[in-house]
Amino acid sequence: MHVLQKSDPSLDRRKSERPIFSAFELGKICIIDQNLARITSGRIENIHEETVVTEIHDLYKSYTDLDFIPVMSGSKISGYLRKQMFFAQLSETRFSRELLLRSDVTASSMMDPRVTVLDSRMNLSEASELLMNREESVRFDPFVITHESRLLGTSTVQRVLEGLNHFLKMDFQSCDLTQKKLMTPMNRGVELTLNHHQILQPLLAPGGDYVDVIELNERYSLALLFDVCGKGLKASTMVNSLASILKTLVYKLDQEGIDLPGILLMMHSLNQLLFHLTCEEMYATGVALIIDKQKSVLTVLDYGHGFLWLKRNRSIHRLCAHIQNSIAVPFLGIHENLEIQAGHFRIHPGDLLFACSDGLTEARNSARQEYGADRIKTMLRFGPSTNAITTNEAILRDLEAFRGGARRTDDLSVLAIQF
């Protein structure tokens, strides 16, 4: 195997090619390939404060691509010129042109001293903050990048925004890929016996909703639907934490034996770990359903905003449970010692469970009306729902008809289970 040494030419080449002005100091270079030496074919490398204005005028006339010019004072950058600014000063009055194009007038008299100079190792978020804090009249002007105190090149606010967008997309893609892997059903060698169907529609992938059904063993199944507060990477990070912790606890549960007290203890541990491992203000609302397939008993843990219905023939029942300690809100991950009072319900053959996030109930149409829980109840009672799949599909079709093209504003998840 070839080992790179410090003197290895290939190492030097990699160093020279390495991007140096971007988030994490790696990635997209934010430097415009525009400098005086290249544009003038080596005729001029730098403009100094002592450079006469007539020479700058000739440059702008000769090279139409030239706009932003840093002005040097010795080895430091003391100001800058822009084409529009330059010619505006020449035409400011009827005498301006004659006065400014004299042989004794230098760049120092026409340059703008409010030049922004950023070090090449600064990351993009720091750069954007500094640039946006400039005076309004120059806020979107180009700026200068130096490396080890030497002029490296020029760049623009647009390039910084493009760089930020580039890394943001990469972060979203990476988080979305992780989320999809974590939501892939666990291959645990347990026969899939629960008839269920789930749909997850992130507003912007990755999302802040979590929905999963885990066959724990031949007797117990665990179904979960959670909605994390907030949006974006922060919410999706908690979704990933929730999924990672849960899957780890399920494997631990396998070793200790699976029964109802053990599953309830596992959910208690999930809450505690989320409390310790995620941001203080982050939490999730939703429901956890423990299904005893042998005794036909449904155990419900309601973590607040639990939208859960049971359909039995034409009857629709809203199912909910309550917390034991009134000092704590029931949200998952916000209170270390949260104790949820489980609700237990007998289930019959043909029963259908439907759960959703508030991305469904709070969806609005163009008249700002909410879809609402009553409409879900009506769809469950009278809609063309014969099984888990058709239930979800019918409700989402009705949602689209209700919205009438109005823009979505939240993640959406639904889960249907038929016994």
3D architecture notes:
- With 419 residues, the protein is α+β, with helices and mostly antiparallel strands.
- It folds into two domains: 17-164, CBS-domain, CATH 3.10.580; 188-418, Phosphatase 2c, domain 1, CATH 3.60.40.
- The protein has helices spanning 9-17, 36-39, 53-62, 83-90, 96-100, 124-132, 157-182, 232-256, 260-277, 358-361, 372-382, 388-403, and strands spanning 47-48, 69-73, 76-81, 117-119, 143-147, 150-155, 195-201, 209-215, 220-228, 284-292, 297-302, 307-312, 315-318, 322-323, 340-341, 343-346, 352-356, 412-418.
- It has a five-stranded antiparallel β-sheet with strand order 7-18-17-12-13. It has a five-stranded antiparallel β-sheet with strand order 8-9-10-11-16. It has a three-stranded mixed β-sheet with strand order 1-2-3.
- Strand 10 (284-292) and strand 11 (297-302) form a beta hairpin.
- Helix 6 packs across helix 7 and helix 8 runs antiparallel to helix 9 (260-277).
- The longest helix is centred in the middle third of the chain and has 26 residues, at 157-182.
- It is elongated and about 100 Å long.
- Residues 1-28 have low confidence and may be disordered.
